[in-house]
């Protein structure tokens, strides 16, 4: 509708008014992210920065690592259909609430009753293996102290 701004426009306008923040946030873009993926993940990062009060622009910290990890987990879930332990899924769902991804892919999982080719299930504890068509897997292990470790490995 005329007069309404999309979330992407609002974020772009905000970053236009804060060029230092824009430059800093853009350093977190992965070389493999499409524009669509980056715009959505950037919005996730910006919307959730306030939830990490020790986060300072330009200063590496465990809070920044956690926010960036959660943003990647959220993007992997939205764009690749990756699944994670329920506590992590609940957290990223809450953090991503209100972010609209236009033409987001629809993923069927083994939970939906469709047999996934090349997928292996986790064998122990709070860990999950997720494989995609590119033949690599993302392995997320959530430790007792609620920290996440994400590992990539080749399926072959």
Automatic annotation (TrEMBL):
<comment type="similarity">
    <text>Belongs to the CARF family.</text>
</comment>
<feature type="domain" description="XRN2-binding (XTBD)">
    <location>
        <begin position="25"/>
        <end position="126"/>
    </location>
</feature>
<dbReference type="Pfam" id="PF11952">
    <property type="entry name" value="XTBD"/>
</dbReference>
<dbReference type="InterPro" id="IPR021859">
    <property type="entry name" value="XTBD"/>
</dbReference>
<protein>
    <submittedName>
        <fullName>CDKN2AIP N-terminal-like protein</fullName>
    </submittedName>
</protein>
